Amino acid sequence: MGAFVALVAGIGGVSAWCAVVLIRRGRRGATENADGLLVEQAGRLRAQQMRSEGRDFRAHPHGRPGSGPRRH
Predict the structure, then answer these.
(1) pLDDT digits (tens, 9 = 90+) for 21-41
(2) Is the separation of the CB atoms in 16 and 24 below 8 Å?
(3) What are the CA-CA distances from residue 62 to residues 36, 51, 59, 72 (Å)?
């Protein structure tokens, strides 16, 4: 019975620690300095470009017309 109580107390402690970590992370909010904002903006643009390139590849699996080697 003592081992069960210790197990439940350990699980409760770990759960409380995880809750504290997640609450502290949630309070940080958005980036406030200019460098951080530029990094976030560049990341969003890069992700948008990657998504659009992926859609383009699926629409044209052999590449865009004229993008490959030309055969005469």
Answers:
(1) 888 877 666 667 888 888 889
(2) no
(3) 38, 17, 9, 18
| Residue-wise DSSP of 2-57 | HHHHHHHHHHHHHHHHHHHHHHHHHTS-S--SHHHHHHHHHHHHHHHHHHHHHHHH
Q: Nearest Cα to 31, choosing from 17, 23, 43?
A: 43
Compute the distance between CA of residue 72 and CA of residue 61 in angstroms, rounded to an integer. Answer: 22
Single-letter amino acid code for the residue at 55: R
Is the entire prediction scored with pTM above 0.85?
no
Residue type, 7: L
Cα–Cα distance measured from residue 24 to residue 11, given in angstroms and rounded to the nearest whole number:
20
